């Protein structure tokens, strides 16, 4: 490579990173990753054999098949959070319930690692909401013009360009801010009777 090369690999990697960032931002990525990673210790540890010198410690329990099912389900839920983001509430709730069930079934939920990862991932999945920019909707509400208020009665420092809505009338002392309609005196709340 010379100093004058175009650097096509850098552009490709930069474009890949940008596409991955956009894909990751449009779904509960971290929730899916935590649920996915939480399934592995729950699935693996009941079948693991620890070697401590010449001593073999078997971790297998009577709930070995149950922990395998729980672990596989958590991995599938983590992947579904990535590729089916509309099931995030169901997948998050199921991940939390499976993490709780893994405590008695699978060696305290994979010694707490799988339990905590799945619990936090499920909570993140439930809390995640798609970040869409909302379109601005123009207000249909028009403020009534003040025929009776003189310009010299407005408080100092308030002008029509400083108001929240264009064309709004500045407030003066004694204005009714309860939101009642002048025609029938209601404020939009329904009566209990």
Order of helices and strands: HHEEHHHH
Biggest pleated-sheet summary: 2 strands, antiparallel
Tertiary shape: elongated
Number of helices: 6
* Strand arrangement in the largest pleated sheet: 1-2
- What is the mean pLDDT? 76
Question: Termini separation (Å)?
Answer: 83 Å
Low-confidence stretches: none
| Radius of gyration over all CA atoms, rounded | 30 Å
| Record field, number of beta strands | 2
Helix percent reads 40-55%
Query: Structural class of the secondary elements?
Result: mainly alpha
Strand content: under 5%
Give me a quick take on this structure.
By secondary structure, this protein is mainly alpha-helical.
Protein architecture, described:
With 193 residues, this protein is mostly helical. 48% of the residues lie in helices and 4% in strands. It has a two-stranded antiparallel ribbon. Helix 2 packs parallel to helix 4 and helix 3 runs antiparallel to helix 4. It is elongated. The chain starts with 7 loop residues before the first helix and ends in a 66-residue tail after the last helix.
